[in-house]
Amino acid sequence: MGTTWTPRALVVGSGLAGLECALELANAGWRVEVLSPGRAGCDGATHRVHALAPWILLTAPWVRGDSPERFLADLKRRGEGREREGLAEVLATEAHSAARELVENLGLVPLGVPTALPGDEIARGMRCLPNAGRVLLAPLLRKCEEAGVRVCGRSLAVGLLSDGSRVIGTVMIDRTTHVPREGHSDAVVLACGGVGAIFPATTAPRWNRGSGLALGSAAGALLHGPEVTQALPVTATPPLYFPTSAALLSSRIRASDGASVSGSDLGAVTVEIGKALLRGATVFMETMGDDAHWLPPRVRESAAFRAEGRVPLTLALHHGIGGVAIDSWGRTSLPGLYACGEAAGGVQGLRRTMGTGLLEATIFAKRAARAACHDIAGIGPAPSRGEARVPPFPLDPAILEERLDELMGPLVALRPPAAVDFALHEIERWPVRVEARIEEGCALAGIRRLAAMTLLAGEQSRRGGRGNVVGLPGNPPRHKEGA
Fold first, then answer.
1. 437 HSE (CA, 13 A, CB side)
2. Domain layout of the chain by residue ranges
């Protein structure tokens, strides 16, 4: 890079996007530290394999006659103009090579030939089986360690450091010692997952509570469509389980108030279930006789299904489509800060194409790493002093967590304006501490609170026709400890 110093990077998140970015930076000669609040490599993809289906779907142009241009046309059709300029083009162009790379690097086993997704005329969805005897990302984690990446488990990022002109590091808590510390770096990459755990029911890990939105907002980064999310019908009794699209479309779904729930595709069924739940009804999926073979064994063998031939359903937040606004190279609006994976927003628009999450993560993780190499070579090392920018720490964090469950639970799929306005009004006005020692419980509640505020503010912005990009919601009133 033509310098006598070794650039440093802090990558927030140890999922696919975080590890791919870390490996790319390490191979370019950077000193890289990956922060993971839990066990490194136990990411959203691994979690969802256990909760949704035994396979991984990779959607890309696989068959003769398909092309990146045709794939892009379908991405644009689903996006309805809500994607950021140039990002879907990158995904469409690089999807096939990224899919092949994931199959090889993660040891995935393709099952048969690609199948056509609902609404598509071309077969693009390739089902792949992961290695059952290990964590999905184990091969990538091993490569990172061999490249010299330092992976810090049980390290929770709670804020960013800024010198006023660029992001220069993170504020974090060691969850073992409970000691906060600052980590200085030349680049910070947000690869910390989506917004699933803002809601009480989600297919995502509990750490995916909108850290990208919260940390980005607190530092002043622009966001793109933070309210754009994807929900899925799941079994209502824990552990949540997705019954499969085929089962949901072929079964009879009824509400306890007598209404029938149906739709032409999974999205329409999800909306109708959401309407029934908002009415206060309980929703059941009834599958009898030959149709029961569509259900996964885990659902067929449940006590509720064996006793009554039906299972209760609810909705869970599955994927955040919006996030921190990025360009086609993963740059955010703040110098020194990059985002990729589900923390980034704008790659896809209003509706996300199934089977593209892992591809999107690996493509933009590598591009963010290359952008950081280019940018930092030009501006040099980051200053050693900066200001901590963290989400406000709320009073009574445990009570706030319970209240967020109550306010956000009904808004997982459908968001009536009155309910959105009421929830945002109350969350904004929750009292926060002026000065406080950084504690894990307060920090986690503060991250979830600010992420919920940005999501709800995005919903209001969309309703008001103010576009896809939003900034930080208005600052809430601040109170001293115990006030």
1. 4
2. 8-195+321-387, 230-318
Whether 124 contacts 71, CB under 8 Å = yes
For 141-163, give one letter per residue: b (16+ CB within 10 A) or e.
Answer: bebbeeeebebbbebbbbbbbbe
187-190/337-339 β-pairing? parallel
List strand residue ranges (DSSP E) for 201-297, in order. Answer: 223-224, 229-235, 252-255, 260-261, 283-286
- How would you class 470 by CB atoms within 10 Å of its CB: exposed for 0-12, middle for 13-18, buried for 19 or more? buried
The distance from CA 263 to its chain's CA centroid, rounded to whole angstroms, is 26
User: Given the DSSP bridges, would you call strands 223-224 and 469-470 parallel, antiparallel or unpaired?
Assistant: antiparallel
pTM listed for this prediction: 0.92
Q: Strand, coil or helix: what is 88? A: helix
Say whether pLDDT at 1 is over 50: no
| R_g over Cα of the chain | 22
- Residue 246 has a pLDDT of 77
SS3 content of the chain, % helix, strand, coil (to 5): 40, 20, 40
For residue 263, the model assigns a pLDDT of 87
Q: What is the pLDDT of residue 273?
A: 96
Average pLDDT, the chain: 89
Q: What is the DSSP string of 90-156?
A: HHHHHHHHHHHHHHHHTT-EE-SS-EEPTT-SSEEEEEEEPPTTS-TTHHHHHHHHHTT-EEEETEE
DSSP per-residue codes, 329-345: TSB-SSTTEEE-GGGEE
Question: What one-letter code names the amino acid at 401?
Answer: E
Check the CA dihedral 174-179-185-187 and report its sign: positive
Cα 5 from Cα 19, distance rounded (Å): 23
The rounded distance, in Å, linking the Cα atoms of 140 and 161 is 28
Residue 247: its pLDDT value, please?
81
Please state, as a whole number, how many other Cβ atoms lie within 10 Å of the Cβ of residue 385: 9
**Tell me: the pLDDT tens digits for 266-310?**
889 999 999 999 999 999 988 766 666 666 677 777 777 777 778
What's the rounded Cα separation, in Å, for the pair 151 and 37? 11
Average the pLDDT over 397-420 and give the result: 97
Which CATH entry fits the domain spanning 8-195+321-387: 3.40.190.10, 3.50.50.60, 3.40.50.300, 3.40.1280.10? Answer: 3.50.50.60
Phi and psi of 388, rounded to 5°?
-80, 130
